[in-house]
Amino acid sequence: MIKTIAFLKKKAGMSQQAFERYYETRHAPLILSIAPRICDYRRNFLRTAGAIVAPGLPALDFDVVTELWYPDEAAFAQAMAAFTDPVNAKRIAEDEENVFDRAHTRFYAVTESRSPPRG
Fold first, then answer.
1. How far apart are CA 10 and CA 17, in angstroms?
2. How many domains does the chain have?
């Protein structure tokens, strides 16, 4: 399984509620329509109340950590090709302008490591 994560910042002036609603009802379905072999797609919306943050750190430059899983290298390669296809890239960029501050977007392939289940 291949996993990617993205750190995304909501558009300035957008409420958290509007951000989450747009992402869930518009952007996520768009991404899934472009790359249908994604086998898991999670959005982890940050809750800053009660967060543990070291003193003196700069303000966060993301509001959600997005996780995308692909069943294999072929599906991952197909998704990356689909996302960067000029027609799809334009559709994604136009939609992202409605919800994200794209200057802060970071997208990475990652290696996930899990601890064994406890209990």
1. 11
2. 1
DSSP string for 23-64: IIIIIHHHHHHH-TT--EEEEEE---TT----TTPPPPS-SE
The CATH number of the domain where 104 resides is what? 3.30.70.100
Which residue in 43, 47, 49 sits closest to 21, CA to CA?
43
Q: Are 100 and 8 in contact (CB under 8 A)?
A: yes
In a domain, 6, yes or no: yes
Per-residue pLDDT tens over the stretch 23-62: 999 999 999 999 999 999 999 999 988 899 999 999 889 9
Length in residues, the chain: 119
Q: Which residues form the domain of 66?
A: 2-47+62-110
